[in-house]
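quick one, 324 residues, struct below
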Amino acid sequence: MGVPLDKASFLALFLQTLFYGVFFTLYWLTLFVLFKKTGIQRQLLIPVATLLLCIATAHLIIDFVRGLEAFVFKVNTIGANAYYSNLASPLDLASKALYITQTTLADGVVVWRCHVLNHRSRFVAIPGCIVLVVNAATGYYVVWALSRAYALSNVSTAASGCITTFYTLTMFVSVTCTISIAWQIYHTRRFMPGGLATLLPVFIVVIESGALYATSVLALLISFLVGSNGEYIMLGVIPPIVGITFCLIILQVHFHIGGNSPIEQSSELVGGIITSLFRGRSTQDRNFTMQRMAVHITEETEVDQSDMMSGKSSQPVSGGVFQL
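---
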């Protein structure tokens, strides 16, 4: 027996509030960490994290207002089931639009990380941007189509296909970029001291962050395909999960959660790799940074004994320190 729509919506509100509390706490910890950073880590990540929090907050407020109307204000008039079945409700459309914005922003961050670690390759940036644009257009088209449906039974086949496409592309971007990032790190660092064991913290950070988000989207896709009302539960849970995933990556990078290498040099290299996930430089660029080097050039000169007796001294032809 499936979950009734009103109970699924109430459970979604409860779980969304729970995960939002986790996201809110992690956000302030992340903000504390990022305020100590400089450069792109501070200029880019703080606005993105703040925007994710604002969208999740607006999504929660809208769902909370809808819950009040369904279970309190209109419970004796139309009922909760009928209220949540109205897909053309302005609040419902706004909630779905915020969900699409949140996931598109998160996918954009994932594509950017993949682009940076692949040496800013156009073969990564161009396909990634195309998929993001197509996915966003598909999602907002679904919102427009639902505004004309008014009821679950009136959803067109085209709109259902677009919903499936949106969920599939979202999961595709997450899985593909996560695999690409993990492979790029392995490919560029597999010969560093300590062997593959030194890469374990990096893989933990990358794979865990991608798996958490991809698993949530997969559950959403499956529940939609089987026609379960569990879809509405995942629609409420995913917006804060997006923010949780984003903040967890930053905190894991900062605190190096995932293991420590016994070799100090390897630990520094691992720290450089995971930090480069959010920097504007590729992993190989960090290895070949040009440094100033002092070269001491000395010259021995044979001195005749008669010259020493006469107080003469030979001057070296060349010498000193040359800065390269």
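The beta strands are 294-297, 320-323.
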